[in-house]
Amino acid sequence: MGECRNLRTVVAALSGIALAVSAGGCTNSSVTEQTLDSGLNGDDAKVSAPPRQRGPVTELVDSLWGTGLSPEEQARQMESETLRQEEVTAHCMRDAGFEYVPNPQANFISNSDPTLFRWDDRDWIAQWGYAIVSTPLPDPNYAEPSAPEVVNPNWVTMETLSEAELAAWQLAYWGVDDDNPGCMQLGSLAVDTVIGRRIEVAEEFRPLLESFGQLRGAVDEGPEFAAIHRDWAYCMADAGYGGLEWQWEARSQLDDWLVEAGLNNESLGWLPRTSDITAMTEREISLALADFDCRITTEFQTRLDTLEIEFETQFANDNHAAFCAFRSAIEQLDG
Fold it and tell me: Apex CA 72: angle with CA 68 and CA 76, to 5°?
């Protein structure tokens, strides 16, 4: 699969990590880490949380499946896949003797706004909390003005064809059945083939990934993990929210309040602002701000990331041959 020359590129995105990589190939390399920067820099720390940092194995898994991407990156990935599909379709149609213009908007529709949810922004949380009792999402029952229709240039071309030419064009595009696919289906298969290759890589390295998952589970049940959550819980108790043990219980606390108040409604975020809902919104925001501030004060995410990176670095070094082969296989997918 080729030589895994250097682990530096695997974790180069991890700011604050010093990589000590020996000379030679990946089989002779090792990774060491230093404590991450907590991101606590004066008053700025009160506004935004430090960015997430990930270990070398998680970086590879994210690269394999496209997980861990920002909303903007996810949108770009979908657009790239759609463009690839359209390019294959266009090439097929030209081979069949028809003009076809790759149209990335043919199958790609994105209504998401990556700025709607900003969980690392304290000002945003001060407005929306966990975005449950009130939400920045548009009301699905409100019909927004329709966007201008995007005209597919290929449909315009179809309108100029004779009845016989149109039938031939549609046959080339749609095909007959699975045994006689059209160009549109061949374009889809081009994207599906890439996904299939990723599944094959995951299956090939199943033993490595299963071992990683088992050992990672042990870390999440270990004393260091518990200590990070315990410090957060102490901070929350000082803020008036006692009885919590794990960070995710803060969000569950809100769910309990909603059930008790009879407000556990899927459309809650868009209901008229009654006095009960307004009061619950204030409770939600107060809880969410305490949660956010305690995570900042206790360096919660930075400590979790450090724990993850330490474990994953050791795992990568203990399983060098398999880790490097896994990395090489992913690089070939993206190459």
Answer: 95
